[in-house]
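Support request from a user on the community tier.

User writes: "When I paste my structure tokens into the form, the page sometimes reloads and wipes my input. The last time it worked, I copied everything first. Here is what I submitted, just in case something in the input itself triggers the reload:"
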């Protein structure tokens, strides 16, 4: 949605299926029967890389050189030179000089032994 300004800097990379919205609606149903909405500018500074399926919400600024991980929902400002990801997006780490040296890193293999079941109770927990 583009009812508010969206500013995109130089050398910004977008992967497929990125959504940038500069508008939103009130949460309470009584406040939106006639299509009421608000607009807030979105700013994406220079050298940002936005991954696949990212959603950027109204009023957000993404700082110079930052990377937004695939699938993130960006609802808060992102400072320069960080990697942010998640729902909602949070800072995962800083981008440092060590990141200048890079190479392809093969993905890890998921383990069949990993489970989402809770860990067994310890003796203290069992005694409660």
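"...and here is what came back when it finally went through:"
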């Amino acid at each position: 949605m583009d009812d508010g300004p969206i500013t995109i800097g130089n050398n910004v990379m977008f992967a497929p299926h990125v959504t940038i919205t500069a508008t939103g609606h009130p949460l309470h149903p009584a406040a939106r029967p006639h299509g009421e909405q608000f607009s807030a500018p979105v700013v994406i500074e220079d050298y940002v890389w936005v991954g696949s399926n990212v959603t950027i919400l109204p009023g957000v600024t993404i700082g110079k050189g930052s990377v937004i991980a695939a699938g993130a929902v960006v609802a808060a400002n992102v400072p320069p030179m960080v990697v942010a990801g998640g729902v909602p997006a949070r800072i995962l780490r800083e981008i440092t000089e060590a990141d200048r040296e890079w190479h392809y890193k093969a993905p890890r293999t998921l383990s069949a032994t990993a489970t989402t079941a809770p860990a067994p109770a310890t003796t203290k927990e069992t005694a409660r």
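Agent notes: The reload is a front-end session timeout and is unrelated to the input. The mean pLDDT is 90. The first strand starts at residue 6 and ends at 8. Escalated to web team.
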